[in-house]
Specification:
By secondary structure, the protein is α+β, with helices and mostly antiparallel strands. The chain contains 21 helices and 22 strands.
Length: 572
Amino acid sequence: MMTLVAFAITVGFLFSVATTFILPGQSLYWEISTLISVFLAGHWLEMRAVRGATGALTELAKLIPKTAHLIKGGKQTDIETESLKIKDVILVKPGEKIPIDGVVLEGDSSIDESMLIGESRPVSKQKGDKVIGGSLNQDGSLTIQVLKVGASTTVSQITKLIQGAQSSKPNVQVLADRAAGYLFYIAVAVGILSFIFWLLIHPQNIIFAVTTAVAVVVVTCPHALGFAIPTVTTITSSLGAKNGILIKEMKALELARKINYVVFDKTGTLTKGQFVIEEIIQTSSREGGIENILSLASSVEQNSQHSIAQSIIKEARARKIDLQKIIDFKSYPGKGATATVNGKKVAVGNESLMKLLKLKTDKLKTRDAGTIVYVAMENKLIGALVLTDEVREESKKAIDKLHGMGIKVAMLTGDLDYVAKEVGKKLNIDTIFSQTLPEDKINKIKDLQSQGNIVAMVGDGVNDAPSLTQAHVGIAIGAGTDVAVESAQIVLMKNNPLDVVKAINLSRKTNVKMLQNLAWATGYNVFAIPLAAGVLYPKFGILLKPEWAAILMSMSSIIVVFNALLLKKVKL
């Protein structure tokens, strides 16, 4: 971009020097001086507007207070936040910003996390809850233990993702960059041709020919084309961050507008992922009662981190049932687990595990539909636990909105078919993939893609990593403080399916702005280059002087930037 302007100024200046010292005649000093002044003024306006577009990183930096109240040996000392170490204990008073990521040791309060995760309502925090550095403590004192420092903190991770998004290029920007490169050669070629035309073919004086050539080079400067896409992507990443949408790769956001199939992982995404035991049944009264069944199941599951296992253990502790020691623990991914309890082999899992153990479950009837966890002892089915996973209120709204946008919805779950269908019926889901093992999820995505669909996968970003990577657009939902999800291209800070709709809306609105800017930048050059070359001069006497060319070039760039800035007012 700068090469063309430097080239035009150099040609005009050298010509003026020649007319001053070698061949006396009319110079272009005034025109060149005006061109430089106008160019610098226009460039200043452009940079001022662009600087306003990059405000998200500046705002993030302001979130972290410079000092923290360190508690050590019963005494409180104010130290610099960057000096804090993991396991340090700090005090955050009402009205103060939380300086760093940590866990609440003492106190109750409400936290405003809107600047970080887009959650407009204050979030209640108490002992054991995690807090994010940069959020605002509202109405109570909190004693917090530091969990993360430096580059691992949420604000640092968000900053890293925004910087990455702003430096990544969508395909349309690659096209614009290529066009800007060609424009340089077009400008030089047209400038030379216009000089030859007005000097030799349609003879005018040399001042006229040089002026026309310089005007062509200046007016063709591809500032508008150069700013058309980067300004939009910069504002998009900032706008997304304010709404709890972190974009890791701009190409993914560009593609998101074409999505026609969204696949949701069920547990923890469409549902809360917090199972509650609705019913405990037994095959006969000889098995020691329902508390014995719960005791055996919770004992086997005590080493598992699966949400269903944790719910079983939680229920056992609520009933004050002690967990028994186990040996020979063996996990069956996607099926369940076995272990030896008090000398007896116990199996806890779904129907697939029971089939693997050659145990029949058809005689065991339950009153409620839900996720069934069978319990067997010594190769004999003794009972089952029926758990339900509450559907999120936002899930139905999100799916209805996706349908309104012409997008179909699928659900992936390891649940039995009738459980999955019950959730699917509640949410009006188009396609249900039930009893899907983790390693099979990727194949379901491939099946949809093979049908010509542009597929987005929405999951937790860890268990669903292969399918997130396979999808055209991988969206990690509910990342919370763990925002650096490597497998996803878009990271949503909240456990809210409605943010998937926001991300697609952001993609569509971003694409509109990109196309508007490209249309303006391209149309401007189509109009301006012939005008500067003097096509209107023979008939109408209209000639674009270099200083006016500079004004026109600068105005085109400013218009592109301000059009991009209108994205800031968009509501997702």
